[in-house]
Structure formats: C-alpha cells, structure tokens
Design brief:
Layout lengths: L1 H42 L18 H25 L3 H32 L7 H24 L4 H15 L1 H4 L11 H4 L1 H15 L4 H12 L3 H6 L2 H10 L2
Helix pairs in contact: 1-2, 1-8, 2-3, 3-4, 4-5, 4-11, 5-8, 5-9, 8-9
Length: 246
C-alpha cells in the first residue's frame, strides 16, 4: 500500500514537471505568434515613417490603442503566470491572478466595444459587416466564459490551467491570420485550433486521456469557426448588426 502511494506521488510529480514545461512553452510560443502577427501593423509600426492605420486603412483611435495595451498585457501576464507556477511561486501567482481577472473583465468590455466600433467605422466592406461583427462578439463571449470558468475552478489546478489556455486560444486568431503567408488564407482562423490540438495531444501522451475542459471548451472553439458565418446569414442578425453599428 505504501508502495502504491509512493508511485502515485511520483507520477503526480512527474506530470507536474511536464505541465510546467508544456504550459510555459505554449505561453512563449503564443506570445511569439501574437508579436509576429501584429508587429507590422502595431508593435513596430510606431517606429516607421508611415502613420499607424488599421487593416482597413483607418487611423488608430485611443480605443484601439487601449485594446492593444490590454490584450498585450494579457499576453505578458500569461507568460509571467506560467513562469511563476513553474518556479513554484504559487502564492505570487494567485495574488497576480486577481489583477489578471480584472484585466480580463476590462478586455471583454473593450474588446466588444472595439469590434462594434471597428465595423461601424467602415474598417470592413459593408457585405462583411454581419459576419465580422458576429465573429468578434462570439470571440469575446467565449473569452469571458473561459476566463470566468477558470477563475471559478481555480482550486482545480488541472482544469484552471487548461481553461486559461482555452481563453487565450479563443482570442489569438486575430494574430494567426496576420502571420506571414496566412493573411490571404481563407482558413486562417482554423489554424488557431492547432494550439488546442497541441493541448489535446499533450494530455493523450502524458495522461492517456483528454481533460474534460478540452472536450467541452474545445467543442465550443470548433463550433466558433462556422457559427458566426451561419448566424450572419440570417435576416435577424443582419438587422441587429445594422442597428448595432449605425
């Protein structure tokens, strides 16, 4: 019996070490993805001679800058938080998590407002307004759901870390579609799901099963790809989008 208990403790220790490496690596890889994706249009554009403009050619507004600062803060926080856990500074991780929760709340509000405002300003062609707006709002809804669930289940370490990763994946498609060679790819949004696939494969390799957070949350992410397009084709949504962006 003592031997079985010792084996379980050893397995948990090994799995914990693997988790530290995996989630830290994912945080760094996703941060690089965000930087490379937004470097030409945001992070490095301030050092050029040309004015900072959106993909639609419109000048940046204070709201867009606030959006950029908040989402960048989330990326940095994700790296810091995974590093703190990997270095066994869990107490600091939990304290910083309070600030992270507040950032996520403001991100949801600002991200939703930015999406509506961008469409209203004419950043996209009129015929794409319904689908772009649906995609933007659904993305922020998923982000809020995942972060809220992660905070609610913060005592469940395995679920918490996976839900936070899902929250990150739900908003990274904007960076993925801006990567070199992907900008004109119609399936660019689908590439963001590769991060989800990495999490699932990691679970299968290390635990021989997929965590329930990936099953439910992953299903939502997969559905989030075609759902905005389907919803945007309805007359009800088109009327709502027109009213919301008028």
């Amino acid at each position: 019996m003592a031997t079985a208990a010792a084996s379980k403790l050893a397995l948990r220790s090994t799995t914990g070490t693997y988790d530290h490496v995996f989630f830290s690596a994912m945080a760094i890889l996703m941060a690089i993805t965000v930087f490379v994706g937004f470097a030409p249009s945001y992070y490095l554009s301030a050092f050029g001679d040309r004015p900072m403009v959106t993909i639609g050619g419109l000048p940046f507004t204070p709201l867009i800058h606030l959006h950029g600062v908040l989402f960048t803060a989330f990326v940095v926080l994700f790296v810091v938080q995974t590093t703190l856990v990997a270095s066994h500074r869990v107490a600091v991780h939990r304290q910083l998590g309070i600030a992270g929760g507040l950032v996520a709340v403001v991100m949801t509000l600002v991200g939703t407002t930015t999406g509506i405002t961008a469409v209203a300003r004419g950043s996209v062609p009129p015929e794409l307004k319904p689908v772009i707006l649906a995609g933007s709002l659904f993305e922020m809804l998923l982000f809020a759901i995942f972060v809220g669930a992660a905070l609610w289940l913060r005592a469940n370490t395995a679920a918490h870390k996976r839900l936070m990763l899902l929250a990150y994946i739900s908003i990274i498609s904007a960076a993925v579609v801006r990567l070199p060679g992907v900008q004109s790819d119609l399936f660019g949004d689908d590439l963001a799901l590769l991060f989800l696939l990495a999490g699932i494969v990691y679970d299968l390799v290390t635990q021989r099963r997929v965590h329930p957070a990936y099953l439910g949350g992953g299903a939502l992410l997969v559905v989030s790809v075609p759902l905005p397009l389907m919803v945007s084709r309805t007359e009800t949504w088109r009327a709502f989008a027109e009213l919301l962006t008028r």
